[in-house]
Description:
Layout: E1 8-15, H1 17-21, H2 29-38, E2 41-49, H3 56-66, E3 69-73, H4 84-91, E4 96-98, H5 100-110, H6 116-119, E5 123-125, E6 129-131, E7 140-143, E8 146-149, H7 153-163, E9 174-180, H8 184-197, E10 202-210, E11 213-222, H9 225-241
Parallel strand pairs: 1-2, 1-3, 3-8
Antiparallel strand pairs: 4-5, 6-7, 7-8, 9-11, 10-11
Amino acid sequence: MSEDNRVVTACLIIIGNEILSGRTQDANLSFLGRRLNEEGVRLAEVRVLPDSLEILPPAIREVSGKFDYVFTTGGIGPTHDDITVDCVAAAFAVPVIEHPEARGILEDYYGSSLTDSRLRMARTPEGASLVPNPVSGAPGIRKNNVYIFAGVPKIMQAQFDAIAHELNGGAPLLSESIAASLPESVVASGLAEIQEHFTEVEIGSYPFQKGGRFGTTLVVRSADPDALKAASEAIMALVVSLGGERDSSVA
């Protein structure tokens, strides 16, 4: 846990031309957002960037200095366009080496089927440590506060679970959702006043349509359970005062 009660933040960099082209849909963001919150780390920014030796290093260097943790997904496989390791090394101005422990892991996993292409997955920035991969052998990597994960969701999730205990987070962000039978425009003014009063909570409004009628899901988030409860009660009182009610059939 964070000793000074400050908000601990993270950035996710989703790497891959296939993501930007729409050929592949990212499935890692929702998992990381949820799991980081459970560890008391706020996912504060997400970037989707191409496989580029020009774009990635300065971006990684920037967010490494801005956030407590940085996670990258994608670009650490055996092919020529898997350049995330090179980009992280460039971001920290260190060479890429063949990590002896990573090579040993790959030799044990592949045996006689270990090829030069597969050995690319033993490359790490100099000074990096390894992240276990119980799914497919090839380890993830940690360099400073940057964790380099696979893009395949099953592997990435296993890698995150392997290092979750290392994260020095704060209190998890709690949430309460209130689906109100009122249009967003009706609650907007009162909701703004509640937000001004409860500065320690985040309040979001998300319109929906059900049975031809418009409603609004009001989501309250806070690490403080008492503040969460008080703000939620104030919002429910607002909804009732405007002639609305809570719609329990809306998730």
